[in-house]
Write a structure and sequence with these properties.
The protein is of the alpha/beta class. The chain has helices at 16-27, 50-54, 71-85, 90-95, 99-107, 110-115, 132-143, 162-167, 173-178, 187-196, 242-253, 270-279, 294-302, 324-331, 362-374, 379-393, 396-411, 425-428, and strands at residues 2-7, 31-36, 61-63, 126-130, 150-155, 181-184, 203-205, 228-233, 259-264, 286-290, 306-309, 336-339, 354-357. Strands 3-2-1-4-5-6-7 form a 7-stranded parallel beta sheet, with helices on both faces. The chain has a 6-stranded parallel beta sheet with strand order 10-9-8-11-12-13, sandwiched between helices. Helix 1 (16-27) links the parallel strand 1 and strand 2.
Length: 429
């Protein structure tokens, strides 16, 4: 099969779920091209996932020309792009300027800029849009003939929460009508897609997989006299709720000062969180360690005892699915504390593989953290339960096999039903 991926940026350290699908398809003998829809900016470019080089993925990645913020410069550059490429596909370029049909996407010249790297592309069997926001653009690019193939959309989080709140509940009406099939990474978001108007038979839960073999499992035991090490991995943004775990750790540290909390990640709230740590006088216990490569993350988690995933619904409505960082901690045998947020309860079974607490409840996080500190004898059983569940439901090899099967169903118009094969046990709980 020939598959086009439409993404925001690539490669992005925090979006290994896209990388895992791309490499899984390549390993299975399929042809993949990646079209990047944001301006060219490779954050943390020195910290690529090793698979980016292993599979030569940058050679498969096609960037649109950067869209200047200055409208005059954007217009002049757009005119140059039209003149330079008109001989390739004049009709496609002219269609991209149809403001009556494509509105702001055409008037802003964004549709034109997005079409440029696709002008030489051969027909695809499938166009897989990662996030609904880019699927709206993929739909129009297919409509003008810049790209061809069945259109599949993966909803993953902000696109089915924050974006809908910003743009209104009808924002995906045309996509639901024209798109061929839809995937969500948890049952929570599948139900939301259906509520927004997606036909139930056109949407399935397809979880975000991880490479379970890359994350070594070990049972956790407390060694007397050694610090109890806690970890969180995630972008430093509001919906990750990290301020609440910091406050909770500060409460616990008053009773158990022999703890160490490493927060892996970076983001817009870094300075605010650093100030919070300083104001709580826990700089010795809590460290913002910044972005890390996957091997570096694995090393930190290997040395950790407990993992916290304190996700919250942001004030703007942004929400999480079962996050991959939480899966990675669980597959490595860490007992976890997470919130009853979005799709996370489909991943963590309360009091079995970890503890679930309400969003923004620092007392509840502190209570469960204290319980785990005082009862290290339950660490191994919780870790085993989490490891078993993630391996059974989120192994990327199983999920990539499932994805190929879904692709084949969509290509042949023999759409799969939501019940049997594709919906994970987690999603059905």
């Amino acid at each position: 099969m020939r598959i086009a991926f439409i993404v925001g940026n690539f490669p992005v350290i925090s979006e290994t779920f896209i990388l895992n699908q791309v490499t899984g398809l390549i390993v299975r003998g399929h042809k993949v091209d990646i079209y990047v829809h944001e301006n060219r900016q490779l954050n943390n470019s020195a910290k690529f996932h090793p698979d980016v080089e292993k599979y030569h993925l940058l050679r498969l990645t096609h960037h649109k020309p950067d869209i200047p913020n200055n409208y005059l410069y954007r217009f002049l550059r757009g005119l140059f792009l039209i003149l330079a490429n008109f001989h390739k596909s004049p009709l496609i370029l002219l269609r991209s300027l149809n403001i009556f049909k494509y509105g702001k996407q055409a008037a802003s010249l964004r549709l034109l800029y997005l079409a440029i790297p696709m002008l030489k592309s051969s027909p695809y069997d499938l166009i897989h849009c990662q996030f609904g926001t880019f699927a709206l653009e993929g739909m129009n690019l297919r409509d003008i003939g810049a790209i061809t193939g069945k259109l599949i959309t993966s909803f993953r989080g902000y696109d089915i929460s924050l974006f809908v709140q910003q743009k209104g509940e009808n924002v995906y009406d045309s996509l639901f009508a024209k798109g061929d099939f839809f995937l969500t990474n948890c049952e929570y978001f599948r139900a939301r897609a259906i509520k927004l108007g997606c036909e139930p038979q056109k949407v399935l839960v397809h979880g975000s997989g991880i490479d379970c073999h890359r994350f070594p499992y070990q049972e956790r035991y407390h060694e007397p006299g050694r610090k109890i090490r806690i970890a969180t991995t995630g972008r430093l943004i509001e919906k990750k709720g990290i301020e609440y775990s910091i406050i909770a750790v500060a409460k616990v540290a008053k009773i158990y000062p022999n703890i160490e909390y490493h927060i892996i990640g970076d983001g817009e709230l870094k300075e605010n969180l650093q100030q919070l740590i300083h104001s709580l006088n826990i700089s010795e216990q809590v460290k913002l360690v910044g972005w890390k490569t996957q091997p570096e993350i694995i090393d930190i988690l290997t040395q950790s005892d407990i993992f916290i995933a304190p996700s919250v619904t942001a004030k703007n409505g942004n929400q999480d699915a079962p996050v991959n960082t939480l899966k990675e901690a669980m597959i490595m045998g860490l007992p976890v504390i997470a919130t009853t947020h979005g799709g996370i309860p489909e991943l963590v079974e309360d009091a079995i593989s970890g503890f679930l607490v309400p969003e923004r409840d620092t007392d509840a996080i502190a209570e469960k953290l204290t319980y785990l500190i005082e009862h290290p004898e339950i660490w191994p059983s919780m870790g085993r339960a989490g490891h078993t569940f993630v391996k059974s439901h989120y192994d990327m090899n199983k999920l990539n096999d499932e994805l190929v099967e879904i692709y084949r169903y969509v290509i042949t118009n023999n759409l799969p039903t939501p019940e049997p094969v594709f919906v994970s046990t987690a999603a059905m709980r």
